[in-house]
Amino acid sequence: MGVVVQNIERAGEDVIAALGEAGVATVHEAQGRTGLMAARMRPIFAGASVAGSAVTISAPPGDNWMLHVAIEQLQAGDVLVLAPTAPCDMGYFGDLLATSAMARGCRALVIDAGVRDVRDLTAMGFAVWSAAVSAQGTVKETIGSVNVPVVCGGALVNPGDVIVADDDGVCVVPRGSAAEALAGARKRLAAEEEKRRRLAAGELGLDLYGMRERLAEKGLKYV
Amino acid sequence: MGVVVQNIERAGEDVIAALGEAGVATVHEAQGRTGLMAARMRPIFAGASVAGSAVTISAPPGDNWMLHVAIEQLQAGDVLVLAPTAPCDMGYFGDLLATSAMARGCRALVIDAGVRDVRDLTAMGFAVWSAAVSAQGTVKETIGSVNVPVVCGGALVNPGDVIVADDDGVCVVPRGSAAEALAGARKRLAAEEEKRRRLAAGELGLDLYGMRERLAEKGLKYV
Amino acid sequence: MGVVVQNIERAGEDVIAALGEAGVATVHEAQGRTGLMAARMRPIFAGASVAGSAVTISAPPGDNWMLHVAIEQLQAGDVLVLAPTAPCDMGYFGDLLATSAMARGCRALVIDAGVRDVRDLTAMGFAVWSAAVSAQGTVKETIGSVNVPVVCGGALVNPGDVIVADDDGVCVVPRGSAAEALAGARKRLAAEEEKRRRLAAGELGLDLYGMRERLAEKGLKYV
Amino acid sequence: MGVVVQNIERAGEDVIAALGEAGVATVHEAQGRTGLMAARMRPIFAGASVAGSAVTISAPPGDNWMLHVAIEQLQAGDVLVLAPTAPCDMGYFGDLLATSAMARGCRALVIDAGVRDVRDLTAMGFAVWSAAVSAQGTVKETIGSVNVPVVCGGALVNPGDVIVADDDGVCVVPRGSAAEALAGARKRLAAEEEKRRRLAAGELGLDLYGMRERLAEKGLKYV
Amino acid sequence: MGVVVQNIERAGEDVIAALGEAGVATVHEAQGRTGLMAARMRPIFAGASVAGSAVTISAPPGDNWMLHVAIEQLQAGDVLVLAPTAPCDMGYFGDLLATSAMARGCRALVIDAGVRDVRDLTAMGFAVWSAAVSAQGTVKETIGSVNVPVVCGGALVNPGDVIVADDDGVCVVPRGSAAEALAGARKRLAAEEEKRRRLAAGELGLDLYGMRERLAEKGLKYV
Amino acid sequence: MGVVVQNIERAGEDVIAALGEAGVATVHEAQGRTGLMAARMRPIFAGASVAGSAVTISAPPGDNWMLHVAIEQLQAGDVLVLAPTAPCDMGYFGDLLATSAMARGCRALVIDAGVRDVRDLTAMGFAVWSAAVSAQGTVKETIGSVNVPVVCGGALVNPGDVIVADDDGVCVVPRGSAAEALAGARKRLAAEEEKRRRLAAGELGLDLYGMRERLAEKGLKYV
């Protein structure tokens, strides 16, 4: 408690960008259906799509002091990830903090708590995935930690992990397996092209995926 | 369990279309305030308005196999209605299934669970009312049933019932009483025209509906 | 129970308007982080921003009779605030009531329950902050009260209090301290200008707010 | 709306009693994992175990009038099942209604809403499974129906269905398949005896159920 | 913010004791179905029944400092009532604070947050009604207020109000109307005796309360 | 996915036992207020108090196959910890699995999902902390992993970590810091003895902890 880790490793920017293009659903599948945050993590505006390196924050409920500390640790392309140490829906983050984070090249905030000034943030184009929107103010009294492992939205996030976020939610890709996840994502995307074409032409998934026999074995009856 | 009913009856397309135009709130009122699904069933994009015949799916939590089975049973103008057998917010349905369903003429999905690829679905104009948005992947291991009665969003849905859905939520109209519900809806819409005009002109509901006497009888005091 | 208070005092229109311009987050901070309603109170469409005088309603669950009574008490610039006497997500309010309320100059509805006809309300530009969207119909059988103190969204609202609402939620400003809250809000807004400029230029909050020493005292370690 | 069905059919008392002895988990399994109410339906005291015939009530939120109507329809061995027409946690039922129901031979109440006087009910030994405990009073203003199909706790209940309830929750057995469910339950119970003995002796489920090969086929790796 | 009101008025001890004997459901009814806290406020052990004068606490989320301040303000027969300024389920209160509060004659704690050491509190016989049980520790960094009006469990509590709590929940009786509430409660209790006797003898509520005619007028049909 | 780690390290039994005696609240404090699971994790019966080594399970929603696999990995004194890969309240575990687990010396189950046969489990004295009680049956179709890191109840659990659970909830102590946590817990317990004695004698926390000056500095006003 009360530690700021200043040097963290990050994945390569090209891998990060490609994971972002693949999107949350594909990346989550590509890494064996792991890493997805809970469905309560929603974007404050539709259409945002981001990938970046996690700068993590463990903060007490209702105390946003560590956000100021974390901003100093940001590099261009990072994503702030804040996990409160107990459930809390207060508004830790608003337009001033966003201004400061953007000045450091920060791409987004992922927070398992509340955010405020959402109209300003939307106008600024600063993407946020949060568990709540709330104007409720926080204090600056108790320290937490920056760049330590946190559980955010029910998912483990290590500093430097790749965060992929879009309208479907937020997925965490461990830094060490980012390249592997990307390879898997690319394979999926390639395979989906052909499937989409055939399904659009009216072919059934039952046939395309060869499911009929196994369904019959399981005992499915048509009446 | 494990049954696919292949031939279901549907209401007439003109009745279905007219119920859709009347909208959820009016139809729900017109059939005695019944048939409404729970408020957790929300559209993935604003402005969608749909009516169609229910092709129902009873599926295990986290298993979307039966969606493929159900798609074969679709006719143009149908709405898929999926009820998991236990609460579940996983993403059963995404853009590939939507492509396949649209190729069969499906109008929408109503699902008391999660959906993913919501940006793609929005771009495709495929309407979904769901309890959650989640990229969490599902398996294809356990069979369920298609076109059996289900409880979805707290409402009983029989296959072939008319589903009406818009920004206010989702309402189920039993096939057998669709014509009667439509007649009631038309009566309400006609009556509302006049009321809207008078209220807009500043007349009070207290006078328009003649409420003052009954309020006084109940003991309402003005101070 | 069963009382309608007909003459309530309101804050000055200029103060109300200025509080509305300051917005929820700023006003909430300016009055010592009090008065905010719970995060479940969400706008039915993005971008609405309203301030007005509260005409309060205490209503039974699933009974919207008192809305008709309250509308007669409205003056131009008022905001209806409805608190059910037990948790309820039914749709108390739709386009006919909105037509009537708008004819009286009402600016918005704040309701710790459900609302319906949201597409119509959006088209009419009638702003609503609610705990739910639901088409579920209500009855007119049991009386309640108008212009009595209510607890709405977890916040105490006295009739004539100033309601400020925007994308961040809803804040209640007691009528008697509205001028003071406004003064505080203006001070904050002025101070924020300079801060925003400096943060945008890359200055850190740690330096701008002089936090480094106190963080060290609390034991924060950089590693 | 507004109907009381006076003559309903019930299952045989011996079948009902035997289903009650089998218990919720076994009966639910025996009928293909169907019929279970949602986990929010909890007993007000531990150790209660009941089976009986459903007398169903569809009631408006916050209105307990139909309970008085339903009590007249009770026969000895019946279970009251109340479903509100919208989510509601108010206290529909207390010690006076329990006194009246017990005088008619009623065995329990299952209610997807609230109950009160729980200390008295516990002292009287009147079992209740409810979604909430709340002293919040209800009105008697709006009629509903008795002995019509209802959705309670997410499960469809027809009048005369067998309700089985214990510490694990509440399960509905359709009257027409009660005998079949009982036969299945008895088969399970017999099979479990032997399994319990072998598991208690230290045999592993992996061996008892012959799971090892199929796990290996699915790709499970031991490291 | 940051105020401790040292002298508060309390209701007479005999009125308080009699309200406690009447119990939550009766008192809530006797004062027009007002004052009940939300159903999430549950006792940590069954069978507790308490009435006392409210010493109120407004505390920040996750900060229990004001409990120490409030304990100094306790008189024998008081009940601590803590409302956090934002939703919070952390454990503000445990066995040491209970020891201290009991030494001052405190009867119970009502807290719209969490409590811990519940086994010790149960052994000590110190009653608590809370929204959660949680061992999560709190800090002592930010001040709040003692003996100011608070909204706890959705109900307004003024210091010195009478708190009545039992297995049905928690009810607030405004100090100024405590005698009136008691009179109403006594009337109800007297009337219930006779009703209970007649209902136990098999008389129906339909007849006892003369409901049949009004039900018929509302349109109830027997089939 | 699909891995069973067979050899895990465990903390010393004496350390584990002593942490169990210290209890959840003390241990959680002793390790810097970390490791606590969410408040939804509740015991199925009051009074249970357990400490043991975690054998972890990552299982798909509604699939309890991995429990059978995990039981083979149990040693005397272990605690099963199951985390579903998506939110799920189904009943993964009942009396047969408990019989098997007890035969292997298992002390308890901690599960962020549902459990059933709770009356039998209570009679057997097998302690369970779960997010729900539900009879809903699960399948055995999809593999997961045993003895991999999991997030359960919002807390990270590595296999072999010490699980401490009692009426206050569940706390995870990393195996590597178990001795340190115990030392801290012992220090706290020793200090609490003296505090409890002085508080019971009527001394105020304000004086015992020397809080008055700091409260005054923060601006607390007595009126």
What does this structure look like?
- With 223 residues, chain A is an alpha/beta fold.
- In chain A, 34% of the residues lie in helices and 25% in strands.
- The first copy, chain A, has eight helices and twelve strands.
- In chain A, the strands form two sheets. In chain A, strands 2, 3, 4, 5, 6, 7, 10 and 11 form an eight-stranded mixed sheet that branches. Chain A has a two-stranded antiparallel ribbon with strand order 8-9.
- In chain A, a hairpin with a 2-residue loop joins strand 10 (162-166) and strand 11 (169-173).
- Chain A starts with a strand and ends with a strand.
- The mean pLDDT of chain A is 97.
- The interface between A and B is large, with 35 and 37 residues.
- Strand 12 of chain D pairs parallel with strand 1 of chain F.
Task: Give structural attributes.
homohexamer; 223 residues; alpha/beta; eight-stranded mixed β-sheet; two-stranded antiparallel sheet; 8 helices; 12 strands
Q: Low-confidence runs of chain A (pLDDT<50, min 5 residues)?
A: none
Q: Quickly count the helices of chain A.
A: 8
The two chains with the largest interface, and their residue counts, are: A-B, 35 and 37 residues
Span of the ends, CA to CA of chain A: 63 Å
How many extended strands of chain A? 12
- Shape category of chain A: elongated
Mean pLDDT of chain A: 97
